[in-house]
Every structure is written in C-alpha cells, then in structure tokens.
Design brief:
This is Alanine dehydrogenase. GO terms for molecular function: alanine dehydrogenase activity; nucleotide binding. Keywords: NAD, Nucleotide-binding, Oxidoreductase. This protein is of the alpha/beta class. Helices cover about 35% and strands about 15% of the residues. The chain has 2 domains: about 190 residues, 3-Layer(aba) Sandwich (Rossmann fold); about 170 residues, NAD(P)-binding Rossmann-like Domain (Rossmann fold, 3-Layer(aba) Sandwich), CATH 3.40.50. Strand 7, helix 7 and strand 8 form a beta-alpha-beta unit. Helix 6 crosses helix 7.
Amino acid sequence: MIIGVPKEIKNNENRVALTPAGTQELVKRGHTVYVQTTAGAGSGFQDDEYQKAGATLLPSAADVFAKADMIMKVKEPVEQEYKLIRKDQLVFTYFHFASYEPLAKAMLESGAVCLAYETVERADGSLPLLVPMSEVAGRMSIQEGAKYLEKPLKGRGILLGGVPGVKPAKVLVLGGGVVGANAAKIAAGMGADVTIVDLNLNRLRYLDDVMPKNVHTLVSNEYTIREQVKESDLIIGGVLVPGAKAPKLITRDMLKTMRPGTVLVDVAVDQGGCIETCRPTTHEDPTFIIDDVVHYCVANMPGAVPYTSTLALTNATLPYAIRLANQGWKKACQESQELRLGLNVIQGQVVYKAVADAFNLPYTEVSKYLA
C-alpha cells in the first residue's frame, strides 16, 4: 500500500501521524511511505530521519494526497485539504465529525473512506486510539488551569496547592474516565482539593480506592454540579460519548453562581464541549471570558507538547496502520471489530450512527460495505 503523511496545518498543531520508527516498520513490510517535507519537524523528527527509515519526501501536501492510498493524519482535515481527498482514499485520523457539520459534509462529498481514531473501540468499551491523547490532555488541563488561575491572566489569583496556613484551590473534575483520572492525579499531586463527579458508581469506587486522600468522589447530577461549581476554583470538563456530541453539564446560567476568576478547561471541546459557553480556541488565543469566568477551550491541547504526544499517539496507532496497510481497509475491518467501529463515512454514506444522528443524516449499516 502507498501511505501518505502530510504536514499538519491546524493552528499550532505540531504533531505528526507517523514517526521515523513507524515509517521503517511499514517500509520493511513492503509498503511505500511518502512524507511531506518538514512534517515531523515540530515533533523533533527531521527529514533525513524519515529518509533513512525508507520514506520518500514530497514538497507539498497536494503531492502526498495525490499519491497515497491511505492518508495518515493527526487532526481532522481542514478546509484547504478537503479538495485534496480523493474518492475511495482511506483517511485514518481523528475526525470528531459530530462537532462540525461542514467537515462531515465535505468528507461525504469526497467519496473517501474515513476511519476515525476516536471511535476505534475494543470489546471492553475502551478507546485505544483516544486514550493516549486523553492522558496527555487530562494532565495538561491542570497545567494550563493552574496557569490561568494566576491574576495577570484574569484568574482568581490562587495557587493550586496552597501553602502552609492557606487552603489549596478546589478543583472539580467532570467525568471519571481517562481525562478525568489523569487530571485528578496531577491536581492531587500539586496539592489541590479535588472532587471527581461521574455517573458510574463502579468507576467511582475504583477511583476512590486508587486516588490520594485529597481526591473525593461524588455521583454526577445537576444538583450536585450546581452546588460544586459555586465553590470550585478550577473546573475540568472531561466527559465523552464516543462519536457523539458531549452532553452540556455546565450551563450558561451556572456561570453567574461562580466566583470571578474561576477557570473552566473544556477538554471535550473537540466533541462539541460539555460546557455550554465553550467554543473552540487555539494555542495562539487560548482563552476568553464570560461573566468573569475564564474559559480555556483549545481543541488540540496535546499539540502544545508534540514530542510526547506524537510518540504516545503513534505507539497506539501503528499496529492498526500496519494491519490496514497489509490487508486493505475492507479485509482489516471484516476481521477486526475494533477497526470496523472506526469507520464513520464510506463512499458518500454515514456508517456511524452517532454521526448520522448529530446532523439528521441518512445512516447506512457498515456491513453493506464489508460483505
């Protein structure tokens, strides 16, 4: 198979979809890899490393898209890439279709096969290609939240861990999944007073067992959240419904009850956000303020730490990429339920129900294409 790796062009997106090590693994299995020049530079991988691994460098994204049977990316295609994607071309990346209708429509029009990292799912319900970036984003959410609590950045002016004789900040984490657990771990390590809310009692029992004593758990409901936001200094939104829009747990009217300078970090922003007042921001302009509440809603948080993020992501994606390259997408998805669940759009049809439901689009059973 011919695999293409274009340079990411989303604002401050420095990750790359394939490392030189991954390139070598594909090349030694007989595949051809084309990499756009400087695609890996932001993550610390130079062109000559890709060449030594067996890749061929191409000067432009258009050249890469034109040659490849499978495109490997990190973030969803942006508008200037839409027309480069060909009919029947396999695009393997994060899509988050349910949060952005123009992207879904563009991919339907392209006739491409869109296999989304975020909906590849194991039998136990875990999301192996979302986990590494959720781990990074969860940990980063506290790092960024602590920074924006500083007064010069319009926060409350509170030190996350406090000092002897002064109480630490109160951190509320919405969701006890991968994002929430990683956020809570870092916040607790910095000495904050942390509360995790989640609907799953078994998950709360587990977190209660493994987390430090400065982490508390509560069952999630509207009443509890309304009460907690009044006293919280930093609120992390880490709620995910695979492939669908995130539920709005923080509503606009709740902002009025928060203390001025409270910081909201919505890690779910690339799935529409779990905070009603959230809108996607960039690393270049990461925050905005509504009702004296600081909103940090960067849609590609891990892009700020690209070396760590690229290695973590490609550790997870490479085995799937090798399988797709070796077998082709149809056979690979016939034999792997995990990969089959990653299929969102095939040749102009939506084959993932949550995406179809998000925009009232016709839904086609994926089995039609795998027969």
